[in-house]
Amino acid sequence: FIEELTTFDDYDLPESTLVLVEPYLKKPSFDPEVIAQKSGNSACGALCRWVRGVVGYHRIMISKVKPLHQKVEETTQAVDTAQHKMNTLENKRKALEVRLSDLARAFEEATIDKNEQEEKTIRMKKMLDTAGELRRVSTCIFRKPFIYSAVIILSGERTRCTQIFDCYERRLESVPGGCAMAAAFVTYLGPYHHSFRRLMLIVQWPMCLKERGIPLVIDSIDGLR
């Protein structure tokens, strides 16, 4: 009996045990003082008091403490759930900030590239206008009504004018090739090293244009570093 009493789990009694014991607690004879007097043994009275205390403790736990514990657990779970949702939203916010930063950087780069393309287009248009004007002037010079007088008056300049005219003719014909080279450079060669750029501009791409019958005039390659 002593061993069973010392190993008895008085902190976790099932409801069925409490229901079984409670009718005895209502009996007047199940009183610590009465039992101690009738038995002549104070230990019996102490055991009766212990039984009453255990049952009273569990009734208080069931009616008052356990609901509080359950409420604490529910509140803790709600807090954990809210914290998880907040962490998820925070991660999404950070991801959106990174995405926004990438888009802003891409927009800035695209704007810079657009401005550069517009400037190059303006320069190319000026070159085409100049070439067209020179061609018109050269055409006027070499019209038959003016040829003989020009030869007589400017016989020493005829060769130079012819060379200038031929040079601009070739340059005008090579405008598509130059535009193709410029567009390819802006599109593909930005990330690469100077030596690779120079190889593509001097060897590979001119060869590719030549194979396709597209004329190209290159004076020099500079400013690519």
UniProtKB/TrEMBL annotation:
Q: Does the keyword Coiled coil feature in the UniProt annotation? A: yes
Q: Name one Pfam family in it.
A: MT
Q: Does the keyword Transmembrane helix apply?
A: no
The chain positions of domain Dynein heavy chain coiled coil stalk read 1-203
Q: Which GO terms describe its cellular component?
A: dynein complex
Keyword annotations of the record: Coiled coil
Q: Name one GO molecular function term.
A: dynein intermediate chain binding
* Gene3D superfamilies xrefs: 1.20.920.20
Coiled-coil annotated residue ranges, if any: 72-120
GO biological processes: microtubule-based movement
The name this protein carries in UniProt is Dynein heavy chain coiled coil stalk domain-containing protein
Q: Which organism is it from?
A: Biomphalaria glabrata
